[in-house]
Amino acid sequence: MPINREFEEKKFLIKGLEANYKIRGAGRPILILHGWGGSSDSWISVQKFLAEQRFKVIVPDFPGFGKSKTPKKPWKVDDYVEWLKNFIIEIKKYNGGFAEPFFLFGHSFGGRIAIKFAVKYPEKIKSLILCASAGIKPEQTLKQKIFFILGRLGDYLFSQKPLIRFKDGARNIFYQIIRQRDYLKANGTMKETIKKILEEDLLDFLPKIKTKTLVLWGKLDKMVSLKYAYIMEEKIPNSQLIILPGIGHSPQLDVPEKLAKTIVQFLRS
Description:
Largest sheet: 8 strands, mixed
Order of helices and strands: EEEHEHEHEHHHHEHEHH
CATH architecture of the largest domain: 3-Layer(aba) Sandwich
Distance between the termini: 23 Å
Strand order of the largest sheet: 1-2-4-3-5-6-7-8
């Protein structure tokens, strides 16, 4: 079978919402879920290396990211999980050779979606890779608790008529103080979406994952602490942990070939 070494970019509608994705290669399918603020564009190099190893690599742009349309209302994790289920239904119509079970890879925010998808639809997945995955809600320090109490008070005060025009600016300053950069990057509907996403703790879902799982993390990750990698390895049955030395939160950008080789080794083991 000839290998498609060039990616194709395609679109289709999922319940009236236009979805964009990139597809490359031929062979066993791998579905890659990008992180918050990312898109399929940041996975082109990894896609290339995996396609050369005879995998069909599909990277969608989540709704609200890349070239996919933004939902009209704020979404929760479950909305993205159901969107992914429908995306798979559609991809099977438009692309021959996409078979279940497939390999599922989730990076950061994409890891959140992958965790809940793996619990809800385990029969669809052959192996799971969680790379620098978000999903475990960190315990608040006393300082953070005080900030959030002040935040709720501020939200009330800046909702009053004399101050309402300063509300967005005050909210952005608050999120800068608590270092929620994802919120600051979001606009419109996606600001409310990230709030809903961050409210959910997926810790209790981890023991329910029955799929063979690789937990993959950069040792220097400052976005999602390495401590969560150890928690995921402990909580997920049939899992193993690989730590990438000298790498931060974005191995797909820093060391795409090394990341692809690590993925292939795990999938073929």
